[in-house]
């Protein structure tokens, strides 16, 4: 949420083309949609803010995300799919939803600390590539 909606350069180059522009050609509608998306992302992140002031601490948020991705990497280990199953399941799909978005260089990310970090976790990168090859062959 933070990377996509609250970093202004990413919001302009990634969120706008994906979510704002397709919603309407009316300037007022797109402005309202943009405001609502950013406000919803901020509200969601504030729910989990440890500070009483509800200020979003970007550094702490990024560190927590890095810890979560490290944990996912450890959980996957050397398996092809999470939990060592033969075919990917819902958990694999959920992880892919995040890793693919962060690792997709065609989206035009301007600031992508999380993408760089996930890119350093080779088993998560390979996991994403396997799903792309198997389920999205035209995009692999």
Chain-wise SSE layout:
Layout: H1 2-6, H2 8-20, H3 27-47, H4 58-76, H5 90-103, H6 113-119, H7 122-135
Structure write-up:
By secondary structure, the chain is mostly helical. It has 2 domains: 1-54, no CATH class; 57-139, Glutathione S-transferase Yfyf (Class Pi), Chain A, domain 2 (Up-down Bundle), CATH 1.20.1050. Helix content is 66%, strand content 0%. It has 7 helices and no strands. It has helices spanning 2-6, 8-20, 27-47, 58-76, 90-103, 113-119, 122-135. The radius of gyration is 17 Å and the shape is globular. It starts with a helix and ends in a 5-residue tail after the last helix. 16% of the residues are buried. It holds the Pfam family GST_C_6. This is Metaxin glutathione S-transferase domain-containing protein. Residues 65-131 form the Metaxin glutathione S-transferase domain.
């Amino acid at each position: 949420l933070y990377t996509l909606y609250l970093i202004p350069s990413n919001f302009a180059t990634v969120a706008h083309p994906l979510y704002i522009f397709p919603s309407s050609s009316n300037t007022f509608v797109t402005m309202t949609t943009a405001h609502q998306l950013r406000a919803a992302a901020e509200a969601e992140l504030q729910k989990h803010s440890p500070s009483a002031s509800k200020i979003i601490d970007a550094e702490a948020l990024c560190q927590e995300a890095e810890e979560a991705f490290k944990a996912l990497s450890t959980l996957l280990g050397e398996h092809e799919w999470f939990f060592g199953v033969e075919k990917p399941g819902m958990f694999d799909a959920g992880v892919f939803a995040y890793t693919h978005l962060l690792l997709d260089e065609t989206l035009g990310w301007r600031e992508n600390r999380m993408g760089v970090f996930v890119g350093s976790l080779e088993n998560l990168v390979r996991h994403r590539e396997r799903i792309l090859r198997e389920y999205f062959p035209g995009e692999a």
